Amino acid sequence: MSQTCYRHPNRETAVSCSSCGRPICPDCMTPTPVGMRCPECSQQRTKVVRNPHGQASGFWSSPATYVLIAINVVVYLIEIAGGGGGINNPSGSFVVDYGLYGPFVAEGEWYRLVTSGFLHASLIHIGFNMLLLYLLGRLLEPALGTPRFLVLYFASLLAGSFGVMIIDPNGLTVGASGAVFGLFAAGFILARERGLNELAGQFAFLIIINLVFSFTGSNISVGGHLGGLVGGLICALVIVAGGRGMLGQKPRNVELLLMALVGAIAVVGSIAIA
Known about the structure:
By secondary structure, the chain is mainly alpha-helical. The chain has ten helices and four strands.
């Protein structure tokens, strides 16, 4: 029999507070060293952005996810307008000007480490990445909070660019796959930490399948995928350490700082290699 969150009766959930046993949805989960707890048992209220009806839903449950998707779509439309983004011409002028290409990074165009993560080579490319971003973002952002989710996303994106610079610096690379792989890794680690073994198994399966495609497919950035995966893994371990009380009295601030440091190291490493 399915359960519904005690604070949001319209939401089904399979997770219960480790202290009082009441069912809780992602918005109401607070990670602790002994599992997920409800706001009352964790002795702190979970900040919930409410819509006019008093409940967080839709855009307000994961605003950064929707904004990131919107930015990617707008950029793709700009690519098409500039003659790129199509199946027959994935490397239009806009892609060449802002995609990740090692020699240009070496000349000082460091912005490519970020902008390349918002460019895509075809409709299938952006469609697949945005679908994964939507599914992962709707799951992770409410549980982590928007600030941590955003830092996780960009740290993974930059780590993916670092992976590209290590493995294929002279290839023109685009796509949000590095960031998406980082979300995959974080989802797996956090699900395991919270005792959601079935969900962790699903994440593991998706990671393996996508890695198989990465190594066997053509025109796929192996470096971007592996780099993003490692970046997301490190960020997730930081979040786990914070949840276990290993990062001091203000773990959220330390988590954000350490995850940002992952991104900064990726940038420095990319520039050094270039």
